[in-house]
Fold:
Amino acid sequence: MTFSLRTRRPATLALADGTVYRGTGFGAEAVATGEVCFNTSMTGYQEILSDPSYAGQIVTLTYPQIGNVGTNPQDDESAQPRLSAFVIKELFEQPSNWRSREPLETFLTRWRVPGIAGIDTRALVRRIRDGGVQNGVLSTDPARQEAEELVRVAAAAPPLDGRDLVASVTTSAPYSWTEGLWAGIEGQVPRRERPVSSLRLVAYDFGVKWNILRLLVEHGFDVTVVPATTPVAETLRLSPDAVFLSNGPGDPAAVQGVQPIVRELAERLPIFGICLGHQILGLALGGQTRKLKFGHRGGNQPGQDLATRKVAICAENHGYAVDADSLRTAGEPVEITHVNLNDGTVEGLAHARRPLFSVQYHPEASPGPHDASYLFGRFRDMVVRHKRGETITGVSITRRDEALLAPASAARGS
Structure:
């Protein structure tokens, strides 16, 4: 059931370039500013809403009908939404799903997130795609619907560049994470059992998604999550076998105090990074990052593993990328392991002398496909072999997968 436009309060989305969209408001009654971006996923709107990587952004969904499955606590990716506002084409008031616990509007109202519906989201996405991301203001306050005022507010809002948004989303204190994946339903294909031996892992929280932590637990890691700027000495006191660098929001070069920490940890322990964690690892190894025109956000990005030549359909959410040329000239023996086939941007890197690797996309895929989930197994294998005293590196663990595929490739060619 969709809403009637006549029963809703007005809402206005104004962009810094003067473009104005009129629609109807839902969720919180508020005025919110942020960088306007779009996500092309067809499912998983609750996971998108609760992903901390969207802090400071007004998120537009390209899929037109949103709210049909409601919301439920099991699909949350963090303790609360961090995005500034939500933009959709059509809102479903009454969800139709057995797992739903509350409608989307109730969820957004509870967390003070304003939304707008009924606008031409195709036109908005084309404007962002052609002109690049820009700041905007969404007002669901009936008393603040004057277009010129809202455009001025949007134009004066600070950009994401240079802002440390990680400080606003990271945990304030360390905690243990023990929850695995959702048990599912009766009759489903059984999951593989967790490894018997556990490995101690410290996860640096830059805005971590819970499904990453769930999958780390499923792969036999005993996970302790720590704040983004936890000193190396405190981490080492936990006697970890490895370190994980999480996803998170905003400009990676603006995150304060983490590069020296990661640089030192990279000399001591195996490391796996995802999304912002990948970018921070690249910076710590001497590379640079750059802002993309409109970013990669959605569950349909093509990422190629250069070792196996396989292409995974990847879930991504980022507006910055590690610059390939900067990695090549940094002086560290770092190899690019994955690329995005749409634009050639760096999607993964690995170190040739240390047990370090990272990917730009989200192998935990929540929401999204599961093509890249093998990377968690690759990480565990690297940590186990390092703990046994083997000489293992990010590059060699990648090439091991290539070698394993070689006999099958030869057989197909004979």
